[in-house]
Amino acid sequence: MYAKRGEAEEDFQKALRRGMIPLVFGEYGVGKTSMARRCVLDAEKQKRLVNIESVAGQSVSDILKRCLETIGYTITTEITTQQTESATTKVTGGVEIPFKAFKASLTGENSNTAGETALQKAQFAVSSPTDSKVIDLCEQHQLVLLLDELHKATPDFVEQITLLIKTYANKNCKNFRIILLGTSSDASRLVRRDPGIDRLLQEIPLKAMSTAESRFIIEKGMTDLKIDIEKSIADKIVKTSSGSPSLVQYLCLEIAEKAFARAPRTASMDDFKSSLTSYVNKRARRLDDLYLKAIETFGQKRYRKQILRAMAEMDNDYVTMEQLCDSITKQLGEDIPSTALSGPLRQLKETTYGPVLKDVERGEGGERVQNYTTFVDPAMKAFIRMKIAGEET
Ligand SMILES: Nc1ncnc2c1ncn2[C@@H]1O[C@H](COP(=O)(O)OP(=O)(O)OP(=O)(O)O)[C@@H](O)[C@H]1O
Ligand SMILES: [Mg+2]
């Protein structure tokens, strides 16, 4: 089951058609991977997709190898043209980053395709992320390179991938496509913006699912299973899942399982309630324990809880004290000064109450360094929204 993702999905496809590099970013679990995979199904069927599910622990050398393997090359790390196994790449500031050089050869049945064009040499060495022969081959074979979980990339990886994209940009590829995905509310944390690649990158923020998108999943799913679900129950699912596609899916499956066994197949409010309990117990036990430890049971204002709620409902993942004050002032309907919040905020960053939150220092473009607060575990954000929505239903 897949709900189309509106404007973001259209922009994504448009970017691909125009030869731009879509950079999809957004909160944990919001559906980035699903959307991108959905849009490149054709390439996948035709074995033109190079899907790097996570760039964590990968080097750009590994990625080039995967591209060549998809085309039909066999990779050996033995290098004949050089003495050493690794070369280095100079990046901005003259820093040298090692690059694991390798040799690629077309062997066996795959070599039948050799000779198609002069491009496809049977054997060659790759010793740099800017190797233009690899990009030419990717272009010739119309590869789609999907780099997922960019937020887990090492700084070295980011530098080298920037160089690769620059080479790509200079080639004006018509068929080779690159897609970048990462969990962040801020695209500039995922890639290094560089004048050489800026014109090609298209940022595509993916936000929480709209009510219509969530409702589509519920209605389509229940109709397929011939289950009747009252609008009021569907509305509760929409509200509690607060735009998290995996949560909508989970609650629907739990409810459907109960209702399916019944005659007539009608979903009840009890089904909904037990689906929520099941989610907390089976899928989010750890988050729930942590959340309960973090919030206070007594106290008039329950500041720690207010802070977590404000953090969870914030569009941005990196929040300043000022933004917190504004938001909690709105929540409580009375003026809350930062002096009231700084103690509870500090507690949420300590082990006694979690830690659920942490400090991040950021200074961009010569600006002064600012102090931000963010969640230690990004999954906590949607979870807290769910808890709050659950309390309100
Ligand atoms: N458009 C959609 N329609 C229906 N279900 C979806 C949709 N998008 C995502 N899902 C469901 O939500 C789950 C999480 O989605 P996905 O893994 O694509 O999110 P993500 O943004 O890539 O997450 P992460 O930040 O962990 O990389 C999927 O397993 C799928 O069940
Ligand atoms: Mg993903």
TrEMBL record:
Domain ORC1/DEAH AAA+ ATPase intervals: 20-186
Q: Which domain of life is it from?
A: Bacteria
* Designated name of the protein: AAA family ATPase
Look up and give the organism this protein is from. Corallococcus soli
Q: Which taxonomic lineage is given here?
A: Bacteria, Pseudomonadati, Myxococcota, Myxococcia, Myxococcales
